[in-house]
């Protein structure tokens, strides 16, 4: 973590001790202590750790801590004994040094640890059937072949039932630093049992020519780089305006806690806004709860591709170390992440979370008459992280604005999942991007979990649709239209879809607090780009990722309901997660509720997506809707420095900034 300009060190035992909070993620010593205690409880040589994460204390315990109570520190552990493949869930009291629970969980598969990926790679390379299938396709430099492990899914194959399966697909490479996805070897899929450490089957059908072009995207491989840009520098000579203490971030009126979860990645807690001296909560917890990328090509080498990148692969552990000046520009503060390696050793992920400010154009403006303009620049706080999962790279961004609005944005880049094709016509489920390379159509779904806490206490979600009013004596000109608010009363009513025709959005209302116009305070959830899941209802992925068949779900808060496709989506048959949570049909009015909003991106692959795809953005917004009595950003100061407007045009309440000499600041 960079320590500069009053930004405090955010990790290390001293910082944790100074700022200890029940929602702080586990420190490296805590991870290793939990692992050691589990090893005492289960002394197998082959015990390996999938996740060691903070068991987040109940909201009541956090409230008690705030009131001066004790701090609780517990680890939630998922481990696998590779001697027999048994999966265990552990609950460790770190202060007491006790394993409070150690439970065998038959019939589930947590995501693979890195050691298992390495095993899969080794046994596939050694398999004679796989080698022969590659040679038949003219691939002879087998050492250079890249093997990508894919989550198996569950397609009802009895030979895979109860086993711990991965599917390995292969790519030809001419150099160790080549684009690993330029030359797919089509139709060869090695099915590996990770517990038995053997290849149980090699699929060899649907061959196509291995593409010849290496499709490099690195700078050295380009014939000529542009040289027509002059420097653009972002300077904050007095440092950033935020303060970080441990995992707590303060910026203007915003308050929040920021951390990295080994499975979910970037997580925010206790997001709140200070309004005239009172800190008003908005959300208890926000973060990505699951994602899935279903592919739409039915061919033997493609149909099984349905990566749940969070629950099947671990987004937190896949998080990038970010670089100042490249990933993040300006005055940056970084937070590190801590995850457990399979052996239980703590792995510190440096620069895992980037925190910085951005100028974001105009916040508000009005020109009364020539020379009478009020304008305010918008500054936003950006909290972000990036994860690389195989071919794709995903950025997760939260933006906080001075008018108390929030935006969540996912950024998609990296390399498309390619398939090799012949020179003739190809099916409509893939699109040609280069000679012998096509990109199968697919979708990206991101389920963002918002544990709402709008102004504290119980909340109710209303669906808001705007309709024309019927013509009649009250509407003689047929021009009238008005919003209709429908409460989502129970979980049976809570699986909702977007509707562009009615401008549908949702409002999270606190019925117990009224604003100045006598209405209950609220935040609105405004959908952005999204799309329905295209896989048929009976498709394996549609059963396993039921969450992606709707855009909004609402549930009553329950501490153990974190994952919309279940805790263990790997090889699941489906039914876990949101379908199970909402089956209880709990009431939702004036309760502690959780919203699950699904961002969807329909990716019809373009030639411009190859050999690397530029960032695509999708997200949603949370906007105060009667939460305040008026625009909360009236008190944002006018631009003070280096404003170029002609004398008399800026109506600035200058506060002693000598630097604002009209037109002469530079
Ligand atoms: Ni895509």
Features:
binds nickel (II) ion, disordered N terminus, globular, Beta-galactosidase, Chain A, domain 5, Nuclear Transport Factor 2, Chain: A, 30 strands, 4 domains, 666 residues, 7 helices, mainly beta
Polypeptide structure, described:
By secondary structure, this protein is mostly beta strands. It has 4 domains: 19-104, Nuclear Transport Factor 2, Chain: A (Roll), CATH 3.10.450.40; 114-221, Roll (Nuclear Transport Factor 2, Chain: A); 243-624, Distorted Sandwich (Beta-galactosidase, Chain A, domain 5); 639-666, no CATH class. The chain contains 7 helices and 30 strands. The chain has helices at residues 13-19, 28-41, 59-66, 114-125, 128-136, 540-544, 578-583, and strands at 47-54, 74-81, 86-93, 98-104, 146-151, 165-171, 184-193, 198-204, 242-245, 248-251, 254-261, 265-275, 278-294, 306-307, 333-340, 346-369, 372-389, 392-401, 406-414, 419-420, 430-434, 437-440, 442-452, 460-468, 481-487, 505-514, 520-527, 552-556, 593-603, 613-624. The chain has a 10-stranded antiparallel sheet with strand order 15-16-17-18-19-30-27-26-24-25. Strands 9, 10, 11, 12, 13, 14, 23, 28 and 29 form a 9-stranded antiparallel sheet that branches. Strands 1-2-3-4 form a 4-stranded antiparallel sheet, with helices on one face. The longest helix has 14 residues, at 28-41. The protein is globular. It starts with 12 loop residues before the first helix and ends in a 42-residue tail after the last strand. The model is unreliable at 1-18 and 652-666 (pLDDT under 50). The chain binds nickel (II) ion. Nickel (II) ion (NI) binds next to strand 23.
């Amino acid at each position: 973590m960079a320590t500069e300009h009053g930004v405090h060190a955010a990790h290390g035992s001293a910082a944790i001790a100074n700022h200890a909070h029940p929602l702080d993620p586990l420190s490296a010593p805590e991870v290793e202590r939990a692992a050691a205690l589990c090893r005492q409880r289960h002394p197998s040589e082959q015990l390996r750790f999938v996740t060691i994460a903070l068991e987040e204390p109940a909201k009541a315990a956090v409230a008690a801590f705030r009131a001066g109570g004790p701090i609780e520190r517990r680890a939630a552990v998922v481990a696998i004994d590779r001697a027999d493949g048994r999966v265990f869930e552990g609950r460790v009291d770190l202060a007491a040094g006790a394993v409070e629970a150690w439970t065998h969980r038959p019939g589930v598969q947590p995501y693979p640890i890195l050691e298992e990926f390495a095993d899969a790679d080794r046994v596939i390379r050694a398999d004679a059937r796989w080698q022969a299938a590659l040679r038949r396709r003219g691939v002879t430099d087998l050492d250079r072949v890249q093997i990508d492990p894919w989550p198996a899914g569950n397609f009802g194959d009895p030979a895979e039932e109860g086993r711990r399966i991965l599917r390995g697909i292969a790519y030809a490479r001419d150099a160790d630093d080549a684009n690993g996805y330029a030359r797919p070897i089509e139709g060869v899929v090695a099915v590996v049992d990770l517990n038995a450490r053997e290849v149980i089957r090699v699929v060899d059908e649907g061959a196509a020519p291995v593409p010849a072009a290496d499709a490099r995207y690195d700078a050295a491989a380009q014939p000529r780089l542009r040289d027509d840009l002059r420097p653009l520098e972002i300077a904050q000579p007095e440092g950033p305006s935020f303060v970080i203490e441990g995992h707590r971030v303060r910026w203007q009126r915003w308050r929040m806690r920021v951390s990295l979860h080994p499975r979910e990645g970037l997580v925010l807690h206790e997001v709140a806004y200070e309004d005239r001296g009172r800190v008003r909560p908005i959300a208890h917890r926000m973060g990505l709860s699951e994602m899935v990328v279903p592919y739409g090509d039915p061919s033997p080498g493609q149909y099984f591709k349905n990566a749940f990148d969070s629950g099947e692969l671990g987004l937190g552990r896949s998080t990038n170390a970010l670089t100042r000046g490249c990933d993040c520009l300006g005055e940056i503060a970084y937070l590190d992440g801590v995850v457990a390696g399979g052996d239980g050793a703590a792995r510190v992920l440096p620069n895992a979370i980037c925190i910085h400010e951005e100028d974001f154009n105009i916040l508000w403006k009005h020109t009364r008459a020539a020379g009478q303009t009020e304008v305010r620049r918008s500054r936003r706080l950006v909290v972000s992280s990036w994860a690389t999962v195989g071919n794709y790279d995903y950025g997760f961004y939260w933006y906080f604005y001075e008018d108390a609005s929030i935006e969540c944005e996912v950024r998609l880049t990296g390399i498309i999942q390619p398939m090799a094709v012949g020179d003739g016509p190809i099916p409509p489920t893939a699109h040609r991007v280069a000679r012998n390379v096509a990109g199968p159509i697919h979708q990206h779904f991101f389920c963002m979990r918002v544990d709402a806490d709008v102004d504290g206490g119980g909340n109710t979600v209303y669906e808001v649709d705007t309709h024309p009013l019927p013509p009649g004596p009250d509407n003689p000109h047929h021009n009238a239209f008005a919003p209709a608010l429908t409460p989502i009363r129970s979980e049976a009513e809570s699986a909702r879809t977007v509707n562009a025709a009615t401008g549908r959005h949702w409002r999270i209302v606190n019925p117990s607090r009224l604003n100045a116009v006598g209405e209950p305070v609220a935040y609105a959830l405004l959908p952005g780009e999204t799309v329905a899941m295209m896989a048929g209802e009976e498709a394996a992925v549609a059963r396993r990722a039921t969450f992606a068949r709707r855009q909004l779900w609402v549930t009553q808060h329950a501490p153990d309901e974190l994952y919309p496709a279940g805790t263990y989506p790997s090889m699941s048959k489906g039914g876990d997660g949101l379908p199970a949570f909402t089956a209880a049909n709990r009431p939702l009015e004036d309760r502690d509720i959780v919203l699950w909003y699904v961002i969807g991106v329909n990716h019809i692959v373009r030639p411009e997506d190859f050999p690397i795809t530029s960032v695509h953005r999708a997200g949603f917004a949370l906007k105060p809707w009667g939460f305040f009595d008026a625009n909360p950003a009236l008190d944002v100061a006018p631009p003070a420095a280096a404003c170029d407007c002609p004398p008399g045009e800026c109506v600035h309440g200058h506060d002693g900034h000598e630097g604002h000499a009209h037109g002469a600041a530079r």
